[in-house]
Amino acid sequence: MSLALAFQLLIQGILLGGIYGLTAVGLSLIFGVMGVINFAHGQMMVMGMYISYWLLVLLGLDPYLSLPLAAGAIFVLGYVMQSTVVNRILDFPEAMQVLPLVAMGLILENLALLFWGPDPRSPSTALGLATFTLGSATVDVSRLIAFGLAIAFTVFLVLFLKKSATGKRIRAAADNRLGAQLVGIKVDRVNNIAFGLGAATTGAAGALLLPLMPVSPYLGHDFTTTAFVVVILGGMGNLLGALVGGLILGVTESLATLALPATLKQVVSFGLLVLIMLYKPQGLFGGRR
Amino acid sequence: MRRLYLLLGLLLAVLLLLPLVLDKYLLGIFVMIFYYAYLGQSWNVLTGYTGHISLGHALYVGIGAYVSTFLAQKFGLTPWLGMLAGGALAAVVALGLGYLGFRFGLRGVYFVILTISCAEIARLVVSHIDAVGSFSGIFLDFHPGFANFQFRGNVHYYYISLGFMVLGSLAVHLLARSRTGRLMVAIREDEQAALALGVDSFKYSMIAIAISAFMTSLAGTFYANYVFYLSPNSMFGMALSIDLILRPIIGGLGTVLGPIIGSFVLTPLSEVSRTYFAQSGLEGLHLVLYGVLAILVVLFMRQGILVYLARALRPWLKLEE
Q1: Model-wide pTM > 0.95
Q2: How large is the average pLDDT for residues A44-54?
Q3: Domain spans of chain A, in order of start
Q4: Chain A residues with CB within 8 Å of chain B CB
Q5: What is the pLDDT of residues B83-128, one digit of tens each?
Q6: Long-range contacts of B133-138 (CB under 8 A, 24+ apart)
């Protein structure tokens, strides 16, 4: 094992971690506001990938250009899901909250299967194979762009929640639903927007991933569980924590391939997940529990 | 109440006679009905009665299937005994998982995530063990005979799976009426209150998860010897974990008849629609409908079909309120 290899893996891990972070930010936002876990999160990300895939193949739009469309489409999907289903189940016992969202994931996964078939598809994009060297390591341009945009989106989302009126309403509803209702906030609609935003980030993450890996309907589970790990690492409901958690997980998984076959790297992340839940359930950076 | 038992006895008698008139395909559908009813019943012990939500029960199905098959292929041990070995291992694994979950106070979604993680870890690890076929899984050779748990046609499987469902449901019925079962329900209803009254919540949660895992893993052995093929994804995957919780939820959580009714409603629907849609090139559509149905049931029939059925039959069966 050489140091150069480790350095290469470190860089790859950091870059991938940005995307992990972006999708986890969405999951964390949804949990923070509604207190439900979006078990369909990864499947929404896959939908984002397929939408930008379609726009690429049918209209020739590069994923970076179609990203707003993919994110917008998944925003609508999330908004509709929240307004038709999730708003009704917020007061249900937990077993009954888990099932509809799991079912939603099942529906999205199989819709993808119906539309695009089971075979993985890897479209070639303009920047797909472009690279440059940094010291001893090679850096994919598309990974770097994905990383940069992922960080930018996360920062933007955090600022939006802190500064804008809608963001303040979302935080108020998250803090105290009844109190927010009393001061005249339409909590249901605020919830819809929050779920839509959380969904949009994962849709954007999907568009960013498209140039990096082949898309298939069954990727969703892995994305969902990865997002769980990241969110629990960073602390449920803590958005910046989710971003940092994403970086940590990206690097850990990447470096784990030094010792383990690549297909086993997830064992490391699940192991990490269990340990964090047991010993630091509030996450590394604190969160809502 | 007596009329209810009479009705159930009558239905059982009909089920016992059905193989006289049904062909192999229809028997196969009934085998799946009984299989999923039994799986749902096993899961019901932990989630329906004790209130700890598991979304990783495929873990125990996988352990049951792999242990008995491995022992049969390597040492020629009959799956009837291998089944018990698998059950014992599943119970031990479940106790380990339960210890972590219950001792460290993981509740609700945190416990759900713990169960998912453990099942996924098992799936990935089994995918890398060459002795059990790693990614590609195990094909079972066909040696019909009672000792090998393998039979020609579906009649034997029909009676075995019916036995699983009936005995499993009877066991859960007796458990639910016992002191242990009532304490489990107390934990489900309000764990803090139960603790305050001196219920050892940890102990009874551990009992529940061990029983649930043991029962679940027996179904794994059955399934392995029914389809003759095991793979990490089909036996440990999350799809199975989701599949096996739908029936008890649709039928009625925390009731003995719920998983059975749920399975009688959902399994034929899923089996028939799967074959039908696959033939017309719409693979996956049945799972979409499945998901829609699950959402509708949660939104509009939260307590499951059983409650409505009981209400409709109450005057005739003379059930008490």
Answers
A1: no
A2: 94
A3: 8-116+127-217
A4: 37, 85, 88-89, 92, 94-96, 98-100, 102-107, 109-111, 113-114, 118, 217, 221, 225, 228, 232, 261, 263-264, 266-267, 270-271, 273-274, 277-278, 281
A5: 999 999 999 999 999 999 998 888 888 898 899 989 999 999 998 8
A6: B133/B230, B133/B231, B134/B232, B135/B231, B135/B232, B136/B231, B137/B229, B137/B230, B137/B231, B137/B232, B137/B234, B138/B66, B138/B69, B138/B70, B138/B73, B138/B229, B138/B230, B138/B231
